[in-house]
Amino acid sequence: MKMEPTLAMSTGQVTAPQEQAFVNWLKSNGATVNQCVGLTHFEGMGRGAVALQDIQPDTLLFSLPRSILLTTSTSSLSSRVPLTTLTGWTPLILSLMYEYLRTLKWKPYFDLLPASFDSLMFWSEPELDQLKGSSVLDKVGKKEAELAYTGELLPFVGNHSSVLGNKEDYTLDLFHRCGSWILSRSFHVESANPDEDKPKGKRDEDSDSDDEEEEEREDVADVAMVPMADLLNARFGSDNARLFYEPSTLNMMSTASIPAGAQIFNTYADPPNSDLLRRYGHVDEENGADLVEIGLELVVGLVGGPEGSSLSEVEQSTRVEWLLELGVDDTFVLDKTHELPEELVSTIRTLLLDKAGFEKAQRKEMPPKPRLDSVSAKWAIAILDKRMEEYETSIEEDETLLSQTDLDPRRRMAIIVRHGEKRLLREARREVVGAFPSGAEEQEDGKKSKADKKRKSAADKGFSEGTKSKKAKQ
């Protein structure tokens, strides 16, 4: 079947002629685009691909030659300066900056990429404050990125000005823009091996559940900007297309029937709203992939602290190091199942062991089984309550705010993120309370006892100060 590119009218950030220039550029570089595929603007998601007519499963939507990918090796810069001396994502960011500033090869592609972003890297401090309590704030990485810019990229550009040109052209704004293009649009490109079966193309965010350290360790040489493929958006449970690798091409195939006028969604990992906001600057009103993280430090401080097993700092460190050596993660994740992670339960029970019990577990090289009982359930409830307290608003307050129609868009997205996380904590608590009501009662009694102590302390302080005042007047 002969495929000719046809475009839907765009209401996006650039004009239709620029879209047509992009498709012409694809075609001149050996790509083919099915006439059933167009580009248009989708509210809240930016530019995306649309079905211009009904599409059947297993239809080839477009085919891209590997030569059109933008990587550290396909950039003309790779043969002119020692990119391998740079670390992390800096080589790829610099390659994009150079191609953007100094060459015309990818200009039609760059013209179609966004110039402004709502991803967290571009939020102000007051805007980020709306996300207090969410662990996504620890993953923005703005300070680290700017340190790489000032400490590594700029000196490198200065040392190779004969190739790279004026250092002042390599601005921090362009650095963040190129970094955000990579974060939100790059793919891991598998090697061209004709003996391999057709594997699923993996966008860079396929490791969304991994932590930031794993992202930093990724081999940047395997990361590519893939024109056209990176225009397809993602939404939880909505994928209807998938990228496949061939020895010389990358092929986007439909995986389901797509009615005319519907958006074409690529198959990515289903990221939670926190990662959608961090990477892409948008959220889903309802996201079945939402999750909330509980740090090991919170668990140890609560269960192993004075109100728990009263472990010394040395004992706490010993048990934590032992658990980490056994492969227990330092972050526990709650998801839509509302079940407590087994590692969290094992950690609670490890911290509650007496000295002899812990030494026995060490000899067996095995932590306690992840089985809740009334005691560990009480501490699980306390952990969930403590984690909930890290947010500055309640679920009910968030719901009241979300009912307003005049909210600032960024504030609304932040509320949706934190509201989704808090709902997971609430539902997980309900599950534990339903299975161990006595644990909930003990936790409530503990709260009342602490409240009573606070009131008594305040009353005693007031009495003492009142007595001192009377004595002073005598």
Automatic annotation (TrEMBL):
Keywords recorded for this protein, A-Z: Methyltransferase, S-adenosyl-L-methionine, Transferase
GO cellular component, one term: nucleus
Pfam families given in the database record: Rubis-subs-bind (PF09273)
GO molecular function: protein-lysine N-methyltransferase activity
PROSITE patterns per record: SET (PS50280)
UniProt keyword S-adenosyl-L-methionine present: yes
Region of interest: Disordered: 191-223, 433-474
Compositional bias annotation for Basic and acidic residues: 195-205
GO biological process: methylation
Entry keyword Cell membrane: no
Acidic residues bias (residue ranges): 206-221
Record-given protein name: BQ2448_7390 protein
Source organism of this protein record: Microbotryum intermedium
Organism ancestry: Eukaryota, Fungi, Dikarya, Basidiomycota, Pucciniomycotina
